[in-house]
Design brief:
Layout: H1 3-26, E1 29-55, E2 58-87, E3 95-116, E4 122-145
Length: 146
């Protein structure tokens, strides 16, 4: 095989792989999400909750757990609504979503967040927080299908 033929074969393989990447991304879908999270802590915080994923006409129950470390004091409840994108099947929403942040809520406050898991699923959420909490922490949120 000549050098030209080898280069041509490598270019054809590269274009084929590139086309496959675009086709598989084009097959990704999105869904609607509602999540309720209760968070409490003093230095180390914990959170738990539940939610629903509506994807391709079906509803799936979600389980939520998490841990935060840093400065956390108080307790709050947050109801998030939004979307999950870049998923091909409902199970793609499962995984660990990490975040670093700071915030405070006294009685009521608004929150918005964009998170990504290891499978590439992107959660875009906004909602209302109620309670009394002050935090500057690293936190991880684990979503599972029930």
């Amino acid at each position: 095989m000549t050098i030209r033929a080898s280069i041509r074969a490598a270019m054809v393989a590269f274009v084929a792989l590139l086309g496959f990447a675009f086709v598989s991304a084009a097959h990704a879908d999105s869904g609607r999400v509602h999540i309720r999270i209760v968070k409490a802590g003093f230095i180390v915080g914990g959170s738990g909750g539940s939610g629903t994923l509506t994807f391709q006409g079906r509803k799936y129950r979600l389980g939520i757990g998490g841990v935060s470390y840093g400065f956390t004091f108080g307790a709050s409840e947050t109801n998030f609504y939004g979307t999950v994108s870049n998923i091909r099947r409902a199970s793609d929403i499962e995984g660990v979503y990490g975040q670093a942040g700071a915030g405070a809520a006294a009685m009521r406050g608004a929150q918005g967040v964009v998170l990504t898991n290891q499978k590439g699923a992107v959660l875009t959420l906004s909602g209302r927080q109620a309670g009394l909490i002050i935090s500057a922490d690293l936190s991880g949120l684990v979503l599972t299908l029930r």
